[in-house]
Structure prediction request, 306 residues.
Amino acid sequence: MGVLVVGSVALDSVKTPFGAVENVLGGSASYFSTAASFFTEVSLVGVVGDDFPSQALTLFRDREINIDGLERVPGKTFHWAGEYSYDLNEAITLDTQLNVFEQFRPKLPAAYQDSPYVFLANIDPELQLDVLNQVKHPKFVACDTMNFWIQGKLGALMAVLQRVDLLTINESEARQLAQEPNVVKAARAILQMGPKALIVKRGEYGALMFNGSTMFYAPAYPLEAVYDPTGAGDSFAGGFMGYLANVDDVSEEAMRQAIIMGSTMASFNVESFSLERLRSLSYAEIRDRFRAFKGLVNFADLPETT
Ligand code: AMP
Prediction:
């Protein structure tokens, strides 16, 4: 089983209290596909400009990600500049330049059209719809979004939400989308907009899943060294969807395991800038941290009282 992803492939400039980088590989689809590639075949849809460094493609090739659907066209690659204060939970966007994404009309290679698992990573919801319209019979469709699109393309975003099984979204953006400060009430309101399940990402405080009437909470792994939270949400989604595609199961139980796998991948990603940590990761490290998560939340039930 494979997963198809459409999203941004970017050159990012990022500043955190621990350092700064300029024009490094980023983008929602880049983080997603690299994380998912540890579990399943990944087909990427996106666009880059002629300024995109060829060596950045080596990562995708090394991870055996299918990039037949990644176009290279004249113009400048999508650029995002962001900054984090000591509170690493929320990115402050300094600049978003859509560049080659402004004119992009994705055309899915034939081999992509039968993908059973589809992730509409954070990008213009009109492009998310475009891609969804070209997939024949997806088994499970998930999407992500952010404040930029909630403010700028709410109508198209609502149309996307009607057609997805799952939405993953940051806590502050869940509040913004639902126009409701309480996260549980906001989740209920968002589930009314279409998705069957919702994962609210809370940065270093973990993730909450609302699936029909059930709730599940996974903590984030407590780390000593967090350098750059950029891409945590997309690495989370990559681990989550990659795992579901690997086991080819979308039951509540599988989704709970998938959340821990997503949290595992996000925890590695924040240990370095750009995709450096995911690039050097091994499956053995992933398995060990997944098990460490189990230890983190495992506790005995109360004794029976008589
Ligand atoms: P996150 O997982 O939420 O930290 O996503 C970080 C990535 O999102 C960065 O690498 C950016 O290039 C990308 N990004 C930021 N803003 C946008 C946007 N408006 N549309 C698509 N991708 C974006």
Remarks:
- The chain has a mean pLDDT of 96.
- The first strand starts at residue 2 and ends at 6.
